[in-house]
Amino acid sequence: MGEGREVYPVEIAGVKRELPLFEVAPGVRIAVLNILGDVELTEAAAGALAERLKGVDFDALVTAEAKSIPLIYALAVRTRKPYVVLRKVYKPYMGKTLEAETLSITTGRPQTLYLDEKDRALLEGKRVALIDDVISTGSTLQGMRLVVEKAGAQVVAEAAIFTEGDRAKWREIIALGHLPIFTE
User: Which class for 164: exposed (0-12), middle (13-18), buried (19 or more C-beta within 10 A)?
Assistant: First the structure.
Protein backbone atom coordinates (compact mmCIF):
# COMPACT_ATOMS: atom_id res chain seq x y z
CA MET A 1 0.00 0.00 0.00
CA GLY A 2 1.19 3.53 -0.68
CA GLU A 3 2.95 5.04 2.29
CA GLY A 4 0.58 7.27 4.22
CA ARG A 5 -2.42 6.39 2.03
CA GLU A 6 -5.70 6.37 3.92
CA VAL A 7 -7.71 3.15 3.89
CA TYR A 8 -11.29 2.10 4.53
CA PRO A 9 -11.76 -1.19 6.43
CA VAL A 10 -14.33 -3.70 5.10
CA GLU A 11 -15.43 -7.22 5.86
CA ILE A 12 -16.79 -9.51 3.15
CA ALA A 13 -18.18 -12.86 4.29
CA GLY A 14 -15.78 -12.93 7.23
CA VAL A 15 -12.73 -11.77 5.25
CA LYS A 16 -11.31 -8.41 6.31
CA ARG A 17 -9.47 -6.01 4.05
CA GLU A 18 -8.36 -2.37 4.10
CA LEU A 19 -9.29 -0.68 0.84
CA PRO A 20 -7.04 2.20 -0.28
CA LEU A 21 -8.69 5.57 -0.89
CA PHE A 22 -8.04 7.16 -4.28
CA GLU A 23 -9.10 10.53 -5.62
CA VAL A 24 -11.30 10.12 -8.74
CA ALA A 25 -12.31 13.78 -9.07
CA PRO A 26 -11.27 16.96 -7.25
CA GLY A 27 -12.31 16.49 -3.62
CA VAL A 28 -13.89 13.08 -4.28
CA ARG A 29 -12.29 9.83 -3.12
CA ILE A 30 -13.44 6.24 -3.30
CA ALA A 31 -12.34 3.07 -1.54
CA VAL A 32 -10.96 0.87 -4.32
CA LEU A 33 -11.76 -2.84 -4.26
CA ASN A 34 -9.44 -4.88 -6.46
CA ILE A 35 -10.08 -8.61 -6.14
CA LEU A 36 -7.58 -9.57 -8.85
CA GLY A 37 -5.11 -11.97 -7.25
CA ASP A 38 -7.00 -12.09 -3.94
CA VAL A 39 -8.23 -15.70 -3.96
CA GLU A 40 -9.45 -15.68 -0.36
CA LEU A 41 -11.61 -12.60 -0.83
CA THR A 42 -12.90 -13.68 -4.26
CA GLU A 43 -13.91 -17.11 -2.96
CA ALA A 44 -15.62 -15.64 0.10
CA ALA A 45 -17.54 -13.12 -1.99
CA ALA A 46 -18.57 -15.73 -4.57
CA GLY A 47 -19.82 -18.06 -1.85
CA ALA A 48 -21.86 -15.31 -0.21
CA LEU A 49 -23.30 -14.07 -3.52
CA ALA A 50 -24.20 -17.63 -4.57
CA GLU A 51 -26.20 -17.96 -1.33
CA ARG A 52 -27.98 -14.65 -2.00
CA LEU A 53 -28.81 -15.75 -5.58
CA LYS A 54 -30.31 -19.12 -4.54
CA GLY A 55 -33.88 -17.84 -4.81
CA VAL A 56 -33.37 -16.29 -8.26
CA ASP A 57 -34.27 -18.26 -11.40
CA PHE A 58 -31.53 -17.44 -13.93
CA ASP A 59 -29.84 -19.25 -16.82
CA ALA A 60 -26.52 -17.40 -17.14
CA LEU A 61 -24.24 -14.88 -15.46
CA VAL A 62 -22.88 -11.77 -17.23
CA THR A 63 -20.14 -9.32 -16.23
CA ALA A 64 -17.88 -6.71 -17.80
CA GLU A 65 -14.13 -7.25 -17.91
CA ALA A 66 -11.80 -7.12 -16.09
CA LYS A 67 -11.82 -7.01 -12.27
CA SER A 68 -15.01 -9.07 -11.96
CA ILE A 69 -13.76 -12.00 -14.04
CA PRO A 70 -12.45 -14.11 -11.13
CA LEU A 71 -15.67 -13.39 -9.21
CA ILE A 72 -17.97 -14.49 -12.04
CA TYR A 73 -15.90 -17.63 -12.64
CA ALA A 74 -16.08 -18.62 -8.96
CA LEU A 75 -19.81 -17.81 -8.95
CA ALA A 76 -20.37 -19.92 -12.09
CA VAL A 77 -18.66 -22.88 -10.44
CA ARG A 78 -20.92 -22.58 -7.39
CA THR A 79 -24.18 -22.01 -9.28
CA ARG A 80 -23.35 -24.41 -12.15
CA LYS A 81 -24.42 -21.73 -14.63
CA PRO A 82 -22.52 -20.53 -17.70
CA TYR A 83 -21.01 -17.06 -17.72
CA VAL A 84 -20.30 -14.37 -20.31
CA VAL A 85 -17.71 -11.62 -20.07
CA LEU A 86 -18.49 -8.43 -21.99
CA ARG A 87 -15.22 -7.17 -23.42
CA LYS A 88 -13.97 -3.57 -23.45
CA VAL A 89 -11.85 -3.86 -26.59
CA TYR A 90 -13.04 -5.28 -29.89
CA LYS A 91 -10.91 -8.05 -31.43
CA PRO A 92 -11.54 -9.38 -34.98
CA TYR A 93 -12.12 -12.94 -33.72
CA MET A 94 -15.19 -11.67 -31.83
CA GLY A 95 -17.12 -11.46 -35.11
CA LYS A 96 -20.35 -9.51 -35.28
CA THR A 97 -20.70 -8.07 -31.79
CA LEU A 98 -23.40 -6.23 -29.90
CA GLU A 99 -22.22 -3.16 -28.00
CA ALA A 100 -23.09 -0.35 -25.59
CA GLU A 101 -21.11 2.59 -24.20
CA THR A 102 -20.45 3.14 -20.48
CA LEU A 103 -18.63 5.64 -18.27
CA SER A 104 -16.88 4.08 -15.29
CA ILE A 105 -16.03 6.15 -12.20
CA THR A 106 -12.62 4.45 -12.00
CA THR A 107 -11.59 5.25 -15.58
CA GLY A 108 -13.35 8.60 -15.94
CA ARG A 109 -13.84 8.18 -19.68
CA PRO A 110 -16.30 6.42 -22.01
CA GLN A 111 -15.79 2.72 -22.66
CA THR A 112 -17.63 0.34 -24.96
CA LEU A 113 -18.82 -3.09 -23.87
CA TYR A 114 -18.85 -5.79 -26.57
CA LEU A 115 -20.74 -9.09 -26.58
CA ASP A 116 -18.78 -11.65 -28.59
CA GLU A 117 -20.69 -13.28 -31.47
CA LYS A 118 -20.14 -16.74 -29.93
CA ASP A 119 -21.90 -15.67 -26.71
CA ARG A 120 -25.02 -14.24 -28.34
CA ALA A 121 -26.66 -17.66 -28.70
CA LEU A 122 -25.93 -18.42 -25.05
CA LEU A 123 -27.94 -15.35 -23.97
CA GLU A 124 -30.77 -15.23 -26.52
CA GLY A 125 -34.09 -15.90 -24.79
CA LYS A 126 -32.38 -16.49 -21.43
CA ARG A 127 -32.78 -15.04 -17.95
CA VAL A 128 -29.51 -13.51 -16.76
CA ALA A 129 -27.94 -12.20 -13.58
CA LEU A 130 -25.60 -9.22 -14.03
CA ILE A 131 -22.55 -9.36 -11.76
CA ASP A 132 -20.04 -6.62 -10.88
CA ASP A 133 -17.45 -6.07 -8.17
CA VAL A 134 -18.64 -2.55 -7.23
CA ILE A 135 -21.64 -0.63 -8.54
CA SER A 136 -21.04 3.08 -8.11
CA THR A 137 -22.59 5.29 -10.80
CA GLY A 138 -24.49 2.46 -12.47
CA SER A 139 -23.04 3.25 -15.91
CA THR A 140 -21.36 -0.14 -16.38
CA LEU A 141 -24.50 -1.85 -15.10
CA GLN A 142 -26.62 0.11 -17.59
CA GLY A 143 -24.22 -0.80 -20.41
CA MET A 144 -24.44 -4.48 -19.47
CA ARG A 145 -28.26 -4.23 -19.39
CA LEU A 146 -28.34 -2.68 -22.87
CA VAL A 147 -26.08 -5.32 -24.41
CA VAL A 148 -27.98 -8.18 -22.77
CA GLU A 149 -31.33 -6.81 -23.93
CA LYS A 150 -29.98 -6.37 -27.48
CA ALA A 151 -29.09 -10.07 -27.32
CA GLY A 152 -32.70 -10.93 -26.52
CA ALA A 153 -32.11 -11.84 -22.87
CA GLN A 154 -33.97 -10.70 -19.77
CA VAL A 155 -32.16 -9.32 -16.73
CA VAL A 156 -33.66 -10.97 -13.64
CA ALA A 157 -31.05 -10.00 -11.03
CA GLU A 158 -28.17 -7.58 -10.50
CA ALA A 159 -25.53 -8.37 -7.91
CA ALA A 160 -22.22 -6.97 -6.65
CA ILE A 161 -19.80 -7.31 -3.81
CA PHE A 162 -20.42 -3.66 -2.93
CA THR A 163 -22.65 -0.80 -3.94
CA GLU A 164 -21.22 2.68 -3.55
CA GLY A 165 -22.56 6.21 -3.08
CA ASP A 166 -26.29 6.78 -2.65
CA ARG A 167 -27.48 3.63 -0.86
CA ALA A 168 -31.16 4.33 -1.70
CA LYS A 169 -30.33 4.17 -5.42
CA TRP A 170 -29.22 0.53 -5.11
CA ARG A 171 -32.12 -1.06 -3.16
CA GLU A 172 -32.76 -3.63 -5.89
CA ILE A 173 -29.12 -4.74 -6.08
CA ILE A 174 -28.09 -7.94 -4.33
CA ALA A 175 -24.95 -6.75 -2.53
CA LEU A 176 -22.74 -7.91 0.31
CA GLY A 177 -22.01 -4.39 1.54
CA HIS A 178 -21.99 -0.67 0.78
CA LEU A 179 -19.11 1.78 0.39
CA PRO A 180 -19.39 5.52 1.03
CA ILE A 181 -18.00 8.14 -1.33
CA PHE A 182 -15.60 10.41 0.52
CA THR A 183 -15.91 14.13 -0.14
CA GLU A 184 -13.88 16.98 1.31
Answer: buried
Those residues whose C-beta lies under 8 Å from the C-beta of residue 125, and which sit 6 or more positions away, are 152, 153
The domain of 58 spans: 39-177
Q: What is the DSSP string of 21-79?
A: EEEEETTEEEEPP--TT-HHHHHHHHHHHHHHTTT---SEEEEETTTTHHHHHHHHHHH
Q: Report if residue 135 sits inside a domain.
A: yes
> Per the structure, how many domains does the chain have?
1
Instruction: Tell whether 23 is covered by a domain.
Output: no
CB 76 within 8 A of CB 50: no
Contact status, residue 49 vs residue 159, Cβ threshold 8 Å: yes
By the 10 Å C-beta count (0-12 exposed, 13-18 middle, 19+ buried), 138 is classed as buried
Distance in angstroms (rounded) separating the CA atoms of residues 131 and 138: 12
In total, the chain counts a number of residues equal to 184
What is the model's pTM? 0.93
In tens, the pLDDT along 132-161 reads 999 988 889 999 999 999 999 999 999 999
